[in-house]
């Protein structure tokens, strides 16, 4: 079995862990040289399933991997534009928000520009287990990859994002019939552009709106019903005032607020990030519907105030049971394919929950500096990125805070290493994989 030891392993080559890599190279270069990012995909892409040619980021380019922490960094978005010869054109666009394709290209450029942190693609993590020494002290982690190889590390950072949310009523349908927005491009690529499919789009979020809009081009002859529980698409109600609660500087205040207060804040801010669309998307959608009416087209429509109360497959089609939330009337909608714009699950991702179970944790908690809380002696650390909204605020899953979060994690690891220097000086990163495995099994 192929195995190796490193000091820090980061799982997922998305914005969070690439931001961490940048912080490591600039703040802790010695640690960076013994750090590795693994990514299950063969390329570094941002929101690959929704890389639509017209889709834009919803945050300023200044909220990149480095600027809010170090504006002089060579890894800023402006440095990327300069290196790729597009800085003049971008400035001339007069927009703070880049196209999503450009953010994705920026992340790939950063991954290729790292000089100390290694990045390996096509490396799928299937399991993480704790490693302990003879005294029972937690000393590291053993990560098993899909090919059977293992990586032992003292520090672990999980930045894979949350799992896609598949509503329970639809969970039993075949994957070929139900496609989450995270796999939209891949899913629609397998459908004939000329065939008149009957399509349903579920949800009222920005992703649902983008799928609905994209289908006009990707499946132009299809009948598309956009089904949502709400009265209609709602515009993001953010303002400069509410946006201040997305600042990295607000995290301390949020973290120090009692749990009940944090929940109230999250409920107040929910519509600024979830189940809403941008003003630009709202205008575009309405213009599309207006033109449809001019042309007497009825093959693109919204079905609002409607709950999906049952679903089944029969004779090669999906049959959705729709319940009108106003009248209680039940009808059936027969579709060939269903696209989901239903966001992401609130529960911990499967990888994190599996790790928590392996350690024996009753619940997943992190410190202010994102270190997993373990109720046992530990000389190792595990950090979670992008999944701590309950304790760190609504910005946790967004680009807004990741540069400063990367700094927090890097400095916490540096301090933790210093506090345990005697172990690092006299031992390998973790006990041997052979001895670790004998204790694990």
TrEMBL record:
<protein>
    <recommendedName>
        <fullName>L-lysine N6-monooxygenase MbtG</fullName>
        <ecNumber>1.14.13.59</ecNumber>
    </recommendedName>
</protein>
<comment type="similarity">
    <text>Belongs to the lysine N(6)-hydroxylase/L-ornithine N(5)-oxygenase family.</text>
</comment>
<keyword id="KW-0521">NADP</keyword>
<dbReference type="InterPro" id="IPR025700">
    <property type="entry name" value="Lys/Orn_oxygenase"/>
</dbReference>
<comment type="pathway">
    <text>Siderophore biosynthesis.</text>
</comment>
<keyword id="KW-0285">Flavoprotein</keyword>
<keyword id="KW-0503">Monooxygenase</keyword>
<keyword id="KW-0560">Oxidoreductase</keyword>
<keyword id="KW-0274">FAD</keyword>
<dbReference type="Pfam" id="PF13434">
    <property type="entry name" value="Lys_Orn_oxgnase"/>
</dbReference>
<dbReference type="InterPro" id="IPR036188">
    <property type="entry name" value="FAD/NAD-bd_sf"/>
</dbReference>
<dbReference type="GO" id="GO:0016491">
    <property type="term" value="F:oxidoreductase activity"/>
</dbReference>
């Amino acid at each position: 079995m192929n195995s190796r030891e490193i000091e820090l392993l980061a799982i997922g080559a998305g914005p969070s862990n690439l931001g961490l890599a940048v912080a490591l190279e600039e703040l802790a270069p010695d640690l960076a040289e013994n750090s590795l990012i693994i990514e299950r995909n063969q390329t570094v892409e941002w929101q690959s399933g929704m890389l639509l040619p017209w889709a834009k980021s919803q945050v300023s380019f200044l909220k990149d991997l480095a600027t809010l922490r170090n504006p002089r960094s060579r890894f800023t978005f402006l440095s990327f534009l300069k290196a790729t010869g597009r800085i003049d054109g971008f400035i001339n666009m007069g927009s703070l928000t880049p196209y999503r394709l450009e953010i994705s290209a920026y992340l790939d450029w950063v991954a290729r520009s790292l000089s100390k942190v290694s990045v390996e693609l096509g490396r799928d993590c299937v399991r993480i287990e704790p490693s302990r020494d003879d005294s029972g002290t937690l000393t590291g982690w053993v990560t098993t990859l899909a090919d059977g190889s293992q990586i032992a590390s003292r520090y672990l950072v999980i930045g894979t994002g949350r799992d896609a949310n598949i509503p329970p009523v639809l969970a039993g349908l075949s994957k070929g019939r139900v496609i989450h927005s995270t796999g939209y491009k891949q899913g629609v690529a397998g459908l004939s552009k000329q065939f008149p499919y009957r399509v349903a789009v579920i949800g009222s979020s920005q992703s649902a709106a983008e799928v609905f809009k994209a289908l006009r081009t990707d499946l132009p002859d299809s009948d598309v019903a956009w089904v949502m529980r709400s009265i209609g698409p709602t515009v993001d109600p953010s303002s400069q005032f509410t946006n201040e609660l997305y600042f990295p500087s607000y995290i301390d205040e949020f973290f120090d607020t009692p749990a009940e207060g944090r929940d109230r804040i999250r409920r107040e801010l929910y519509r600024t990030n979830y189940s809403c669309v941008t003003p630009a998307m709202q205008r575009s959608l309405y213009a599309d519907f207006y033109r449809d009416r001019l042309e007497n087209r009825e093959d693109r429509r919204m079905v609002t105030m409607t709950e999906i109360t049952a679903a089944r497959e029969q004779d090669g089609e999906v049959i959705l049971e729709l319940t009108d939330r106003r009248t209680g009337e039940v009808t059936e909608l027969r579709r060939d394919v269903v696209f989901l714009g239903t966001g992401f699950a609130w529960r911990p991702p499967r990888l994190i929950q599996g790790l928590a179970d392996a350690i024996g944790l009753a619940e997943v908690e992190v410190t202010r500096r994102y270190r997993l809380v373990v109720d046992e002696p530990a000389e190792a650390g595990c950090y979670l990125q992008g999944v701590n909204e309950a304790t760190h605020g609504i910005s946790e899953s967004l680009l807004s805070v990741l540069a400063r979060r990367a700094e927090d994690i890097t400095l916490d690891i540096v301090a933790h290493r210093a506090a345990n220097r005697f172990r690092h000086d006299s031992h390998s990163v973790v006990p041997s994989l052979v001895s670790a495995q004998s204790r694990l099994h």
